[in-house]
Every structure is written in structure tokens, then in C-alpha cells.
Backbone:
């Protein structure tokens, strides 16, 4: 019984420690997200400011100032840019970037696109999931 308890305790500690982010990993995550946004450098040709709703995400409030976007989607903080006709967004919680989103304005009241896990958008279609935001008033 004592051996089983020791094994379970050790396994729990290993799992807990492996799920923790080190400061170095968090900094790497933040740097990658910012570099991805910095790479989107065309002039903004759309304005996505306003209140939106995504079926799978919930409420979104986006504020655009020039090319830069800030706001929230669900409980995530949003940082992003508009480059040309697309919005490039990152979602943050507790200093870590969780998702990268690319959106196009399919009509005045609809943004469509996809998102991937991680601080940068993954080009593989297998990694992408659809997202649609509809303007709400």
C-alpha cells in the first residue's frame, strides 16, 4: 500500500510540474505572438470596432485605433492588428497567448475566419478551426 501511495504521489507531482509554465516559456510565447502580429504590416482597410458575438466563444468587444486592436473575446484579452482586409488577433490570459485568429469581413456585420492554438497562426488546415463573429448591438 505504501509503494502504491508513493507511486501515485510521484506521478501527481510530475504531472503538476510538467503543466507549469516557466518564465522562459511564457516569454517565448509572448515574443512569438508579438512577432506574428508585427509581421502583418499592411495599412488597415477595414474597421472591426464594436460588439460582436461568436457562437463558440461568446461576446466580443473590439476597439480599433488605426491598425491596432484591443478588447476581449469571452474572458480572453485580445491584442491584434488589421493588415489590409484582414484582422490578426491573439487571445491572452494571465500573460500567456492561447490562440491566434485570422478574420476577414465578409459583410458589414460578419467577420469570418479561423483560429489555431498557440501564439502564432498555424497554416495547416488540420490545425485550423472556423470562427464567425456577428455584430451585436
Residues:
Amino acid at each position: 500500500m505504501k509503494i502504491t501511495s508513493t507511486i501515485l504521489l510521484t506521478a501527481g507531482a510530475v504531472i503538476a510540474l510538467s503543466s507549469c509554465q516557466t518564465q522562459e516559456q511564457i516569454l517565448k510565447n509572448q515574443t512569438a505572438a508579438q512577432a506574428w502580429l508585427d509581421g502583418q504590416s499592411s495599412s488597415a482597410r477595414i474597421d472591426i470596432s464594436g460588439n460582436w458575438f461568436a457562437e463558440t466563444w461568446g461576446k466580443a468587444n473590439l476597439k480599433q485605433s488605426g491598425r491596432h486592436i484591443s478588447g476581449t473575446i469571452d474572458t480572453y484579452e485580445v491584442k491584434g492588428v488589421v493588415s489590409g482586409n484582414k484582422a490578426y488577433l491573439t487571445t491572452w490570459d494571465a500573460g500567456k497567448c492561447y490562440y491566434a485568429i485570422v478574420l476577414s469581413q465578409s459583410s458589414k456585420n460578419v467577420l469570418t475566419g479561423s483560429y489555431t492554438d498557440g501564439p502564432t497562426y498555424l497554416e495547416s488546415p488540420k490545425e485550423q478551426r472556423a470562427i464567425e463573429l456577428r455584430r451585436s448591438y
